[in-house]
Design brief:
By secondary structure, the protein is an alpha/beta fold. About 30% of the residues lie in helices and about 30% in strands. The chain is built from 5 helices and 12 strands. The strands form 2 sheets. Strands 1, 2, 6, 7, 8, 9, 10, 11 and 12 form a 9-stranded mixed β-sheet that branches. The chain is globular, with a radius of gyration of 17 Å. The relative contact order is 0.20.
Length: about 220
């Protein structure tokens, strides 16, 4: 059986709304192809960084954004309510954002398994740099430091007709002070961290990004289109 094909879009630094619109375009294109009976439409994979932005998922609470409009303006951050699952999170410079727009009919039709694969891609990536990641029962995400759990990557997705969008926010060299303006993912009793903080070293962003993409390719067993 041929491996699924995925077209890769490394966008660099891109405005959140611009990337969201691009995701929606790719997402709708795949759904349209499936509705038209086109078999095996090519899945898509976006990697990028965003300028400072807070996004609130459908199941989140607006009061988990602690900053008002004036504070958002002062810290040069935007805010969007969006159509993924999950609560509030932050994206910004130094954070790797990964958007798989995958036709899961070509992989496996199991959203729970899909989420675990996304988490596993981060766990395998940070292991390459000497960090041990783990999951916490009942909480989506990847954490380090079992004695004082800190989240290093957050996840939130949307799916329709087994096509996915949104995805991973993975803190590499992220400015963590921006998380002080929210209740990250609605969890108030656990901290957020980054590879930079955990390893006390500024990471080579592109090396980490390429490692993560390679792990996704291995886990999902796809080829680049």
């Amino acid at each position: 059986m041929d491996k699924p094909l995925v077209k890769y879009h490394p966008l660099g630094v891109v405005d959140y709304k611009e990337a969201w619109d691009f995701q929606e375009l790719l997402f709708q294109n795949i759904i349209t192809q499936k509705q038209q009976g086109i078999s095996n439409p090519i899945s898509q994979l976006i990697t990028c960084e965003h300028p400072h932005v807070y996004t609130l998922g459908k199941s989140g609470k607006k009061d988990h954004l602690l900053a008002n409009d004036q504070v958002l303006s002062e810290i040069d951050a935007k805010f969007y309510q969006i159509n993924r699952g999950g609560d509030i999170t932050y994206h910004g410079p130094g954070q790797l954002v990964v958007y798989p727009i995958f036709d899961l009919d070509q992989f496996f039709t199991d959203i729970h398994k899909y989420m675990r694969f996304l988490e596993e891609s981060v766990i395998l990536t940070i292991a390459e740099f000497g960090l041990k990641g783990f999951r916490i029962e009942g909480l989506t995400g990847v954490w380090i430091d079992p004695l004082n759990p800190k989240k290093i990557a957050a996840f939130g997705v949307k799916s329709s007709r087994w096509v996915t969008m949104h995805g991973i926010g993975f803190n590499i060299n992220t400015e963590l002070a921006y998380f002080n303006q929210i209740v990250p993912c609605g969890i108030s009793d656990k901290q957020v961290t980054s590879m930079n903080q955990a390893l006390n070293s500024v990471m080579d962003f592109e090396v980490v990004m390429n490692t993560l993409v390679a792990k996704l390719k291995e886990l999902f067993m796809f080829e680049f289109a």
